Amino acid sequence: MPAIFAQSPQYVLSNHPHAQHIPTIHESAVQARRILNLSSIATLSTIFPHQEPLEPFENRPDNLGGVPIGLIDYYASCDPTPYEPTILAISIATSFRNARAGSNVTLSLRYHPPIHHPPADDIYTYSPANLPRFSLLGHIEPVPASEINKHHMDRCFFERHPDAVAWKPGNAIHHSWWARLVVEQVYWIGGFGDRAYIGWIPVEEWRGVTQEEVKSARLVGERGYQNDRSL
Q1: Residue 170, by phi and psi: left (phi above 0), alpha (psi -120 to 50) or beta?
Q2: ω into residue 17 within 30 of 0, thus cis?
Q3: I need a surface site. Which of 6, 38, 96, 176 has the fewest CB within 10 A?
Q4: 216: helix, strand or coil
Protein backbone atom coordinates (compact mmCIF):
# COMPACT_ATOMS: atom_id res chain seq x y z
CA MET A 1 0.00 0.00 0.00
CA PRO A 2 1.40 3.46 -0.87
CA ALA A 3 2.67 5.32 2.15
CA ILE A 4 0.19 8.13 1.66
CA PHE A 5 -2.76 5.87 2.44
CA ALA A 6 -1.22 5.08 5.82
CA GLN A 7 -1.43 8.75 6.81
CA SER A 8 -4.22 10.13 8.95
CA PRO A 9 -6.94 12.25 7.30
CA GLN A 10 -5.25 15.32 8.79
CA TYR A 11 -2.39 14.73 6.31
CA VAL A 12 -4.46 16.34 3.60
CA LEU A 13 -4.86 19.56 5.58
CA SER A 14 -1.43 19.57 7.21
CA ASN A 15 1.59 21.59 6.18
CA HIS A 16 2.47 19.61 3.11
CA PRO A 17 6.16 19.93 2.07
CA HIS A 18 5.11 21.89 -1.03
CA ALA A 19 2.85 24.24 0.91
CA GLN A 20 5.55 26.87 1.39
CA HIS A 21 3.68 29.73 -0.16
CA ILE A 22 -0.02 30.54 -0.07
CA PRO A 23 -0.71 32.76 -3.09
CA THR A 24 -1.85 36.30 -2.44
CA ILE A 25 -5.16 37.60 -3.76
CA HIS A 26 -3.35 39.13 -6.73
CA GLU A 27 -1.47 35.92 -7.49
CA SER A 28 -4.76 34.04 -7.26
CA ALA A 29 -6.31 36.54 -9.68
CA VAL A 30 -3.45 35.86 -12.09
CA GLN A 31 -4.05 32.11 -11.81
CA ALA A 32 -7.77 32.60 -12.44
CA ARG A 33 -7.11 34.74 -15.50
CA ARG A 34 -4.68 32.08 -16.71
CA ILE A 35 -7.42 29.46 -16.44
CA LEU A 36 -9.86 31.76 -18.25
CA ASN A 37 -7.31 32.09 -21.05
CA LEU A 38 -6.46 28.37 -21.24
CA SER A 39 -10.06 27.17 -21.19
CA SER A 40 -12.91 27.92 -23.57
CA ILE A 41 -15.83 25.87 -22.18
CA ALA A 42 -17.54 26.50 -18.85
CA THR A 43 -20.84 26.09 -17.00
CA LEU A 44 -23.20 29.02 -17.47
CA SER A 45 -25.78 29.23 -14.68
CA THR A 46 -28.97 31.30 -14.74
CA ILE A 47 -32.33 31.40 -12.95
CA PHE A 48 -35.71 30.78 -14.54
CA PRO A 49 -38.00 33.83 -14.38
CA HIS A 50 -41.19 33.61 -12.36
CA GLN A 51 -43.29 34.73 -15.29
CA GLU A 52 -42.37 34.20 -18.92
CA PRO A 53 -44.62 33.34 -21.86
CA LEU A 54 -43.79 29.91 -23.27
CA GLU A 55 -43.11 29.29 -26.91
CA PRO A 56 -45.60 26.98 -28.68
CA PHE A 57 -42.98 24.25 -29.04
CA GLU A 58 -41.97 24.23 -25.35
CA ASN A 59 -42.79 21.45 -22.94
CA ARG A 60 -41.59 22.97 -19.69
CA PRO A 61 -42.53 21.79 -16.18
CA ASP A 62 -44.58 24.13 -14.03
CA ASN A 63 -43.22 26.15 -11.11
CA LEU A 64 -39.68 26.65 -12.41
CA GLY A 65 -39.62 30.32 -11.44
CA GLY A 66 -36.57 31.03 -9.26
CA VAL A 67 -34.98 27.65 -9.99
CA PRO A 68 -31.30 27.75 -11.10
CA ILE A 69 -30.00 25.80 -14.08
CA GLY A 70 -26.39 25.32 -15.20
CA LEU A 71 -25.51 24.43 -18.80
CA ILE A 72 -22.24 24.04 -20.65
CA ASP A 73 -21.42 26.84 -23.08
CA TYR A 74 -18.61 28.15 -25.26
CA TYR A 75 -16.71 31.32 -24.43
CA ALA A 76 -13.43 32.99 -25.41
CA SER A 77 -11.15 35.50 -23.74
CA CYS A 78 -10.85 38.23 -26.37
CA ASP A 79 -9.71 41.84 -26.66
CA PRO A 80 -10.49 44.56 -25.79
CA THR A 81 -11.74 43.14 -22.45
CA PRO A 82 -10.11 39.70 -22.05
CA TYR A 83 -11.31 39.61 -18.44
CA GLU A 84 -14.95 39.59 -19.61
CA PRO A 85 -15.68 36.38 -21.55
CA THR A 86 -16.99 36.77 -25.08
CA ILE A 87 -20.00 34.57 -25.78
CA LEU A 88 -21.96 33.72 -28.92
CA ALA A 89 -25.50 33.75 -27.57
CA ILE A 90 -28.26 31.68 -29.16
CA SER A 91 -31.57 33.47 -28.63
CA ILE A 92 -33.57 30.26 -28.26
CA ALA A 93 -31.20 28.76 -25.66
CA THR A 94 -32.43 28.55 -22.07
CA SER A 95 -29.45 30.41 -20.57
CA PHE A 96 -29.91 33.46 -22.78
CA ARG A 97 -33.67 33.50 -22.51
CA ASN A 98 -33.24 33.59 -18.74
CA ALA A 99 -30.62 36.31 -19.04
CA ARG A 100 -32.88 38.43 -21.25
CA ALA A 101 -35.63 38.00 -18.66
CA GLY A 102 -33.36 39.60 -16.06
CA SER A 103 -31.42 36.71 -14.56
CA ASN A 104 -27.95 37.30 -13.25
CA VAL A 105 -25.36 34.92 -14.66
CA THR A 106 -22.56 32.83 -13.19
CA LEU A 107 -19.81 31.27 -15.30
CA SER A 108 -18.01 28.45 -13.44
CA LEU A 109 -14.62 27.16 -14.52
CA ARG A 110 -12.06 24.68 -13.26
CA TYR A 111 -8.45 23.99 -14.16
CA HIS A 112 -7.66 20.92 -16.25
CA PRO A 113 -3.96 19.96 -16.06
CA PRO A 114 -2.28 19.04 -19.35
CA ILE A 115 -2.86 15.43 -20.38
CA HIS A 116 0.87 14.73 -20.35
CA HIS A 117 1.65 16.40 -17.04
CA PRO A 118 4.68 15.48 -14.91
CA PRO A 119 4.22 12.72 -12.34
CA ALA A 120 3.18 13.77 -8.84
CA ASP A 121 4.70 12.81 -5.50
CA ASP A 122 1.27 12.16 -3.96
CA ILE A 123 -2.32 11.57 -5.02
CA TYR A 124 -3.46 15.05 -4.02
CA THR A 125 -1.33 17.06 -6.45
CA TYR A 126 -3.75 16.48 -9.33
CA SER A 127 -6.82 15.73 -7.23
CA PRO A 128 -9.80 17.78 -8.50
CA ALA A 129 -10.45 18.72 -4.87
CA ASN A 130 -7.02 20.39 -4.77
CA LEU A 131 -7.10 22.04 -8.20
CA PRO A 132 -8.21 25.64 -8.77
CA ARG A 133 -11.78 26.49 -9.70
CA PHE A 134 -13.76 29.71 -9.62
CA SER A 135 -16.99 31.43 -10.54
CA LEU A 136 -17.54 34.72 -12.34
CA LEU A 137 -20.75 36.44 -11.26
CA GLY A 138 -22.30 39.15 -13.39
CA HIS A 139 -24.70 39.83 -16.23
CA ILE A 140 -24.87 39.40 -19.98
CA GLU A 141 -24.75 42.42 -22.28
CA PRO A 142 -24.79 42.58 -26.09
CA VAL A 143 -21.61 43.60 -27.89
CA PRO A 144 -22.16 46.06 -30.77
CA ALA A 145 -21.15 44.89 -34.23
CA SER A 146 -18.82 47.88 -34.50
CA GLU A 147 -16.82 46.64 -31.51
CA ILE A 148 -16.80 43.06 -32.82
CA ASN A 149 -15.41 44.25 -36.16
CA LYS A 150 -12.93 46.74 -34.72
CA HIS A 151 -11.28 44.21 -32.39
CA HIS A 152 -11.86 41.07 -34.51
CA MET A 153 -13.64 39.44 -31.59
CA ASP A 154 -15.42 37.01 -33.92
CA ARG A 155 -12.07 35.80 -35.27
CA CYS A 156 -10.80 35.34 -31.71
CA PHE A 157 -13.90 33.33 -30.78
CA PHE A 158 -13.86 31.11 -33.87
CA GLU A 159 -10.17 30.31 -33.37
CA ARG A 160 -11.23 28.60 -30.13
CA HIS A 161 -14.50 27.21 -31.52
CA PRO A 162 -14.30 26.61 -35.28
CA ASP A 163 -17.58 24.70 -35.27
CA ALA A 164 -19.42 27.75 -33.93
CA VAL A 165 -19.14 29.42 -37.34
CA ALA A 166 -22.32 27.48 -38.20
CA TRP A 167 -24.37 29.60 -35.77
CA LYS A 168 -22.73 33.00 -36.15
CA PRO A 169 -25.08 35.98 -36.43
CA GLY A 170 -27.02 35.85 -39.69
CA ASN A 171 -26.96 32.05 -39.95
CA ALA A 172 -29.95 30.13 -41.29
CA ILE A 173 -30.34 27.89 -38.23
CA HIS A 174 -30.97 30.04 -35.14
CA HIS A 175 -30.96 33.72 -34.31
CA SER A 176 -27.74 34.57 -32.47
CA TRP A 177 -25.88 37.60 -31.17
CA TRP A 178 -22.53 38.51 -29.70
CA ALA A 179 -22.44 39.05 -25.96
CA ARG A 180 -20.04 39.43 -23.07
CA LEU A 181 -20.26 38.46 -19.44
CA VAL A 182 -19.77 41.66 -17.47
CA VAL A 183 -17.96 40.37 -14.39
CA GLU A 184 -19.10 41.95 -11.12
CA GLN A 185 -17.80 39.42 -8.56
CA VAL A 186 -15.19 36.64 -8.55
CA TYR A 187 -15.18 33.72 -6.11
CA TRP A 188 -12.03 31.59 -6.07
CA ILE A 189 -11.07 28.23 -4.58
CA GLY A 190 -7.39 27.72 -5.27
CA GLY A 191 -7.19 24.25 -3.69
CA PHE A 192 -6.79 23.00 -0.14
CA GLY A 193 -6.89 25.88 2.33
CA ASP A 194 -3.45 25.27 3.81
CA ARG A 195 -1.77 25.89 0.46
CA ALA A 196 -4.13 28.09 -1.56
CA TYR A 197 -6.25 31.19 -1.23
CA ILE A 198 -10.00 30.64 -0.92
CA GLY A 199 -12.35 33.61 -1.06
CA TRP A 200 -13.49 36.61 -3.05
CA ILE A 201 -11.21 38.38 -5.51
CA PRO A 202 -12.04 42.09 -5.89
CA VAL A 203 -13.19 42.80 -9.42
CA GLU A 204 -10.60 45.59 -9.73
CA GLU A 205 -7.90 42.99 -9.01
CA TRP A 206 -9.43 40.66 -11.60
CA ARG A 207 -9.50 43.34 -14.27
CA GLY A 208 -6.08 44.68 -13.34
CA VAL A 209 -4.16 41.51 -14.24
CA THR A 210 -2.10 42.17 -17.37
CA GLN A 211 -1.92 39.88 -20.37
CA GLU A 212 1.82 39.62 -19.75
CA GLU A 213 1.10 38.19 -16.30
CA VAL A 214 -1.41 35.75 -17.78
CA LYS A 215 1.06 34.53 -20.39
CA SER A 216 3.95 34.09 -17.95
CA ALA A 217 1.94 32.40 -15.17
CA ARG A 218 2.13 28.62 -14.81
CA LEU A 219 -0.25 26.25 -13.04
CA VAL A 220 0.51 22.81 -11.62
CA GLY A 221 1.24 20.39 -14.45
CA GLU A 222 2.32 23.10 -16.89
CA ARG A 223 5.93 23.21 -18.04
CA GLY A 224 7.83 25.74 -15.95
CA TYR A 225 5.57 25.44 -12.90
CA GLN A 226 7.33 25.99 -9.58
CA ASN A 227 6.61 23.65 -6.69
CA ASP A 228 6.24 26.54 -4.26
CA ARG A 229 3.33 27.77 -6.47
CA SER A 230 4.83 31.25 -6.61
CA LEU A 231 4.15 33.19 -9.76
Answers
A1: left
A2: no
A3: 6
A4: helix
pLDDT band at 119 (very low <50, low <70, confident <90, very high): confident
Question: Is residue 180's pLDDT more than 90?
Answer: yes
**Angular region, 199: left φ>0, alpha ψ -120 to 50, beta rest:** left
Q: How many CA atoms lie within 13 A of 136 on its CB side?
A: 25
- The pLDDT confidence band at residue 227, using thresholds 50, 70 and 90, is low
- Give how far Cα 180 sits from Cα of 86, 146, 191, Å: 5, 14, 28
* Sequence-separated (6 or more) residues with CB below 8 Å from residue 98: 46, 47, 48, 49, 69
Q: What percent of the chain has pLDDT over 70?
A: 86
* pLDDT tens digit sequence for 32-56: 999 999 999 999 999 999 876 666 6
Reported residue count of the chain is 231
Compute the distance between CA of residue 150 and CA of residue 133 in angstroms, rounded to an integer: 32
C-alpha count within 13 angstroms, C-beta hemisphere, residue 26: 5
Could you tell me the sign of the dihedral formed by the alpha carbons of 56, 60, 66, 70, in that order?
A: negative
Q: How far apart are CA 152 and CA 80, in angstroms?
A: 9
Name the residue among 220, 216, 223, 199 with its Cα closest to residue 16.
220
Calculated CA dihedral for residues 28, 29, 32, 34, nearest 10 degrees: -100
